[in-house]
Amino acid sequence: MVAAAGGRDDAVRALILAPFADRYLARLRREVDVAYESWLDTHALQDPEELGARLAREDVAVLVVEADFVFEEVFEAAPGLRLVGVCRNALTQVDVESATAHGVAVTHAPGRNTNAVAEMTLGMMLALARRIPEATATVTGGEWSGPGLGYERFRGREIAGSTAGVIGFGQIGREVARKCIALGARVLVHDPYVPERQVRRLGATPSALDDLVAAADFVSLHVPDADETQRLFSSEMLARMKPGAFLVNTSGGAVVDLDALTEALHAGRIAGAALDVFPG
Predict the structure, then answer these.
(1) What pTM value is reported for the model?
(2) Does residue 280 form part of some domain?
């Protein structure tokens, strides 16, 4: 049900497709005519063409999304749209160039999931280091033959005393570095856009990219999904990694060349990789 703010017919209309807490919806509804349809409730993402037609039909000025895509056809179909709010850090699902051309402001929420992604990154590092997925598959697959198997195949290694390389020192990269330091790892950081003093202030060490890749036991990627980072980890970069090292990517799917990574893993040039993003 949609109710106009204060009963006014001229209230600004907003369509919210992202999950919102009740208390924040209540605050919005005091000022804005809100239609709330969280994608977690509908279990569906909007078709961009249908979304554009709806925005125009209902004279929606504010659109808030989390998972939905807002492409050029949306902006072309909805001349009354004035603001798109993205409830996440990345802006890859919104055609920002088209929004700018149509006079639509785009906002996002940097830092919203910083700790969640940092913990996911750390979890992946631990899973790789302790070989947890392999051990789990062995047990659930009925291959467990006794305690000796664990010592022979799944002893793993510790993060404490290892060298972790963090590429990209934004909010997530900084939190990953902080957590790795807390676990006793030496942390190297590469980010050409961040002053070295900020890296040192956290207790990490600034490093050139090639030096980091060659020295790190764990390489964790936290760079934006941009033209300059496409296939940053190509076959050449993967070949520079320390033998026995692990690669973790929680940034952009296109940052790692998956064919090259598959080849490096099969050849045993690196010990393992964990990804929660993929191209496309």
Answers:
(1) 0.82
(2) no
Quick check: 127 and 133 in contact, CB under 8 A?
A: yes
Alpha helix positions (H), the chain: 22-29, 39-42, 48-57, 72-77, 96-101, 114-129, 132-140, 147-153, 171-182, 196-201, 209-215, 235-240, 258-266
Q: How many CA atoms lie within 13 A of 243 on its CB side?
A: 3
Tell me if 144 is assigned to some domain: yes
Predicted local confidence at residue 154, as pLDDT:
79
Residues 125 and 262 in one domain: yes
Residue 149 belongs to domain spanning = 114-275
β partners of residue 275: 249
- 189-244 residue pLDDT tens: 999 999 999 999 999 999 999 999 999 999 999 998 788 888 899 999 999 999 99
- Check whether residue 75 and residue 121 sit in a common domain: no
Residue 40: give its domain's CATH number.
3.40.50.720
**The token pair that represents 66 in the structure block:** 């989390």
Say if residue 157 is in the same domain as residue 49: no
Looking at the structure, tell me whether residues 141 and 77 fall in a common domain: no
What gap in Å lies between CA 6 and CA 97, rounded to an integer? 35
Per DSSP bridges, beta strands 13-16 and 186-190 are unpaired
**229 and 254, same domain (yes or no):** yes
274/248 Cα distance (integer angstroms) = 5
Answer yes or no: do 94 and 119 share one domain: no
Residues 90 and 65: their CA atoms lie apart, in Å, by 12
Tally of CB atoms within 10 A around 127: 19
| Mean pLDDT in residue range 1-28 | 78
What's the rounded Cα separation, in Å, for the pair 248 and 180? 13
Distance of CA 143 to the CA centre of its chain: 35
